[in-house]
């Protein structure tokens, strides 16, 4: 077993650990995931994983996407049980629509192009989380997000170690590094901004 495969397994285990940590917080009642949003995430994960594996043809590069499908669906089921189910908003519908478009593009052209388009849906899917964390930094615990970030970073290294000249293979893991790191960073920025605003108000009082 070479180092690339070992790192791929570690990245998959890291992803599972992040989901377990996130769901532990859900079970403790510290956050209330929206079942509708996680339903969309599960759909997007299915398109993303299928197209990424079809594009790369490498199961070890696709460890995180495969793990993501099952764990995402598991979180969706948990959200139905202990969370809430609100109506889909514009962002949710946009992400779902782009995910469907990505699947169509995949069938009409190539899996690589379809997977590239589905990354837009993933980005849009983060918008409600960014807004929520900016408004209430405590609504998302940073630890699972940092674990996801590191796991995707390791997956990105696996792509480089198993390089076959397909630059598009790098997009998914490294984009997810940025997206998952951005959640705790937005929370930190919000706390800093609110602290400065409070201090300014006190000084001007």
Descriptive key words:
205 residues, mainly alpha, 7 helices, 80% helix
Shape: globular
> Poorly predicted ranges (pLDDT <50, ≥5 residues)?
none
Q: Please give the alpha-carbon distance between the first and last residues.
A: 66 Å
How helical, in percent, are the residues?
Answer: over 70%
Please tell me about this protein's structure.
By secondary structure, the chain is an all-alpha fold. 80% of the residues lie in helices and 0% in strands. The longest helix is centred in the last third of the chain and has 34 residues, at 171-204. The chain is globular, with a radius of gyration of 18 Å. The termini are far apart. The model has no long low-confidence stretch (mean pLDDT 88).
Chart the SSEs and their pairings.
Layout: H1 3-27, H2 35-56, H3 63-82, H4 90-108, H5 111-135, H6 142-161, H7 171-204
């Amino acid at each position: 077993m070479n180092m690339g495969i070992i790192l791929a397994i570690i990245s998959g285990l890291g992803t599972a650990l992040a989901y377990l940590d996130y769901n532990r917080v859900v079970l403790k009642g510290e956050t209330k995931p929206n079942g509708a949003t996680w339903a969309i995430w599960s759909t997007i994960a299915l398109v993303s994983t299928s197209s990424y594996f079809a594009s790369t043809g490498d199961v070890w590069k696709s460890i995180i996407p495969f793990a993501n499908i099952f764990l995402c669906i598991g979180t969706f089921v948990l959200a139905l049980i202990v969370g809430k189910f609100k109506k889909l908003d514009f962002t949710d519908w946009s992400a779902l629509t782009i995910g469907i478009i990505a699947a169509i593009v995949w069938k009409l052209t190539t899996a690589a192009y379809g997977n590239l388009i589905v990354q837009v849906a993933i980005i849009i899917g983060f918008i409600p989380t960014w807004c929520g964390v900016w408004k209430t930094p405590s609504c998302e615990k940073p630890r699972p997000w940092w674990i996801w970030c590191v796991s995707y970073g390791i997956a990105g290294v696996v792509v480089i170690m198993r390089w076959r000249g397909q630059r598009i293979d790098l997009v998914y893991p490294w984009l997810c590094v940025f997206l998952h790191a951005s959640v705790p960073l937005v929370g930190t920025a919000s706390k800093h901004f609110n602290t400065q605003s409070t201090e300014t108000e006190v000084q001007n009082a």
